[in-house]
Amino acid sequence: MTASTQFVVARDDLKTCRLIETPLPEVTQLPETGLLVKVERCAFTANNITYALLGDQLKYWDLFPAPEGFGNIPVWGFGKVVQSRHPDVAAGEILFGYFPMATYLVIEASDVKKAALRDGAAHRQSVSPVYNSYARVTGDPAFAGREGDYQALLRPLFMLSFLVDDFLADSDFFGAQNVILSSASSKTAFGLAWLLHSHRKPVRVIGLTSAANAAFVQSLGCYDKIVNYDKINDMPATAPVAFVDMAGNADLRGKLHRHFGAQMKYSSRVGLTHQDAGSDDDALPGAKPTWFFAPDQLRKRAKEWGPGGIDQRFAAVWSGFTRALGPKLEIVESRGANAVQKVYLDTLKGDVRPSQAHMLSLAE
User: Fold this and answer.
1) pLDDT recorded at residue 57
2) Is 44 helix (H, G, I), strand (E, B) or coil?
3) For labeling, which of 50, 122, 130, 177 is most exposed (least CB within 10 Å)?
4) The CATH number of the domain where 110 resides is what?
5) What is the 3-class SS of 196-245, one letter each residue?
6) 282-328 tens-digit pLDDT
């Protein structure tokens, strides 16, 4: 193999996508401590569309350079080291972390430790360190087979669920009696619902979903009530609520604020899969909608809980979550450029069934 294939999208029109090829370096051409990593498989979910929509704002486009006007969408997955100039990293090692939609990635290995290493490339330092860290998972059963798929498909999203849950609990749910989650069929939403529901937090969990997805949401068993989007005005507006917006749908957000009025005690935007997002949020009744930025909560808890504190608390709930809800998903594995393009465009259009979870590889 002499070239790396990349799947890139137009930054101003996400429907436009193409394949490009870039030459692969010889081992002697790698940066000092450089690794050439073959991207073996990765997860693709609606959250990756959020990465693309916020690519400029949150610097996701900076991570993996692409031709001018195009971007390479970051994905969580697995790669194998095929060439190494670092004395402590061997060819054949398996890494788990943030990869481009490509067949290869060059990593400038730094902070190499037994369990992890970091990409020290200068162009990657403008984002949260979590996006530049790679777990060294060779031979680890927690990252093999179906468990490995759960790591790629669910772990990054469940970490977000975990941090939102922690933030809400730490804020006493802003006095709300009900927590409303939009896009209730999404992985981040049902991860948060599972945390809220399974640990008997002092709130009821209400999931908003489409009629087409209602049966799947019901099967998850982690919502106290499920409401179709066209029935929002039928919900009682007498009790205080907190709203976690997983889709960034401005029209939906406006309807909920106007329906609940002063009873809307907290309104947070987490996801942005709807490309028409954007409204005059300042004019809405109730609490002003704000962005939930996970790295802020991550830094806060890292300082308060000390080394390993976040990992210990996360691990305490992760295995229970995957045992309960992992089997609810049909994991679909697809290989090759045509399959990757189809899954990407279907996800962009919202045409992927919520019960499906996609693992992809550009290599045939």
Assistant:
1) 84
2) strand
3) 122
4) 3.90.180.10
5) HHHCCCCCEEEEEECHHHHHHHHHHCCCCEEEEHHHHHHCCCCCCEEEEE
6) 889 999 999 888 888 988 999 999 999 999 999 999 999 999 999 99
Residue 273 reports pLDDT greater than 60:
no
> Do 240 and 341 reside in the same domain of the chain?
no
DSSP classification of residue 100: -
- Asked if 241 and 178 count as a contact pair (C-beta separation under 8 A), the reply is yes
Q: Which of 149, 155, 117 is nearest to 136 (CA)?
A: 117
| Residue 356, token pair as written in the block | 């499906």
188 and 107, same domain (yes or no): no
Of 296, 315, 338, at which residue does a domain stop?
296
Measuring CA to CA, how many Å separate 210 from each of 182, 253, 268, 337, 358?
10, 15, 20, 31, 21
- Identify whether 7 is part of a domain: yes
d(CA 163, CA 156): 11
Query: Does 305 reside within a domain?
Result: no
Q: Which structural domain, as residue segments, surrounds residue 243?
A: 156-296
Mean pLDDT of 217-229: 97
d(CA 143, CA 354): 23
- 104 touches 2 (CB < 8 A): no
Q: Which of 95, 53, 57 is nearest to 73 (CA)?
A: 53
Alpha-carbon span 7 to 339, nearest angstrom: 11
Report the number of secondary-structure helices (H) and strands (E) in the chain.
9, 17
DSSP annotation string for 68-83: TTEE---EEEEEEEEE
User: Among 168, 171, 105, 165, which residue's Cα sits nearest to residue 132?
Assistant: 105
Confidence check: pLDDT of 219 > 70: yes
Asked if the structure places residue 323 within a domain, the reply is no
Report how far apart, in Å, the C-alpha atoms of 216 and of each of 162, 186, 220, 325, 329 are.
22, 10, 7, 11, 10
When divided into structural domains, the chain yields a total of 2
CA distances (Å), origin 169, targets 189, 211, 286: 16, 30, 20
Which pair of tokens denotes residue 232? 């929002």
Q: Is the pTM of this model over 0.70?
A: yes
